[in-house]
Amino acid sequence: MGLVLAAFSGLVTALALPNELFPDGSALLGAVSVVPYLLALAGARSLREGSRMGAVYGAVSTLGANYWLAFFEDFSVWTLGGTTLGYTLIHAFLAVVLVRFLREERLWRPFAVAAAWTGYEYLKSVGFLAYPWGLLAYPPSNILVYVQHVEITGIWSLSFITAAANAVLAEPFLRLRAGVGRPYAGSPRTFGQGIAAAAGPAGFVLLLIALAVGFGVWRFANPLPIAGHMSAVLVQQNVDQWRAGQEEASLRRGQELTREALREADQRPDLVAWSETSLQRPYLRYQDFYRTHPAGDPFTAFLREIQTPFLTGAPVILDAENWELMNGAILLSPSGRLVDHYGKQHLVPMAENIPFWNFELVRQFYRNVIGLTGRWSVGNEYTLFEVPVADPGVQSVRFGAPICFEDSFGYLTRGFVYLGADVLVNLTNNAWSRTDSAQIQHFVSARFRSIENRRSLARSTNSGLTAVIDAYGRVTAELPMFEPAALTAEIPIYDTKELTIYTRYSDWLGKLLLGISMLTAAALFLRDRDYRRL
Prior knowledge:
Layout: H1 2-16, H2 27-32, H3 35-42, H4 47-65, H5 76-102, H6 109-123, H7 144-147, H8 150-153, H9 156-175, H10 191-197, H11 199-221, E1 226-236, H12 247-264, E2 271-273, H13 287-292, H14 299-306, E3 310-319, E4 324-332, E5 338-343, H15 360-370, E6 385-388, E7 396-400, H16 410-418, E8 423-428, H17 436-453, E9 456-461, E10 467-469, E11 475-478, E12 485-494, H18 501-505, H19 508-533
Parallel strand pairs: 1-2, 2-3, 7-8, 8-9
Antiparallel strand pairs: 1-12, 3-4, 4-5, 6-7, 9-10, 10-11
Helix pairs in contact: 1-3, 1-4, 3-4, 3-9, 4-5, 5-6, 6-9, 6-19, 9-10, 9-11, 16-17
């Protein structure tokens, strides 16, 4: 029965996240999704049995939320399979900690569970294997009045509150279980007594929610001043560049969509932005190619024609002798001169960034077995691009350009703002995913970056979700997904140099909750050892 409950809970967790049934996710499902799983763990007769339940929950929730990884071409067995296997093992380990916390019949039990869960979500969002998808913070993302406080805490407060809500709802049922752990004297053993015992923790969770909503009300009532706007054309080619022979088609469509947008615009925009890897060859090295392609409408002639600063994804040469390339963003002047570049710092693990690639056996394995012929080199520094702006209140704008899923990492994106970015412009290519849920999940994660840093975020994507998001997470303009189009939009530039607490101190709450849960778990397991010795 415990394995069934764990599987059911994993399925509900996947449904709570943005998907085709619930495009914005479901805050209600998120608040109850983990309850069956916690009840199953509380009934585990051993840590090993709890670990098996954790493995089932991890497998079902990962497969259900990330099924679109199966479309990652020949590498899908490693993306979906590897991700599922990894989080099956991680949840098996996390379940051991949760089982131990659930055996403590104390008022702090729900919050110990919430701290452990949030600490796990923080850990899965940092480091080489980081994958900040499927977090409990995401189901309530569309309740903007509730999520404004992430400018202080980052998304970790949302994960903590959601996990705590699940644990509090499970508490009356847990209190009915005689013989769970070492219940203290006078433990209630009726459902009514269980509800009464859970009233204190429930009240604290409601207080946290009320404080969050109150902060949101205050923030909307005291808006940040706007200095002006940067006008931009965000081009969505909707060309699957992974298919052979699409290089010229992608260029041609991007140029046509850009021209159409410029013809319809009231005035020339301050910036034209194309998506990640829209140029598939290094710009400077392949000048001859870009002077003659696409045939009949060459790219360099197009740049001179539009006479607008141009931002696009393109390979950037890091080491010409060894042909090491970065997945980059480049800014071109109206004359076509390369102004500056940025190299993607957080690459997709095991796909874009492959450990030990320099060893021949590793290269042969990836080329012959997996089908990957190369890798990207890691970018090692932030770049702030700058363009002049027609709006007299702004004159010029500095912006950072996180690439692809880099806008899902709070700690990375805040680095651009910390260094002085006035706005963020993300370049993404999710065309390979073929599903709305993959693109919406990415968008939901990215939207928090605008709130955390109180900067506008513009997303220029190949297939979606192309949009402009203001400093409160509101979508001010967007394009339909999987349709070729260009979005002409005004991006708000805020008249503030003040940095939010999150921008200054990054993931302080995630680290704090991780530390608290680790220390608590260590103390409890050490106490268990003392009891066994006695």
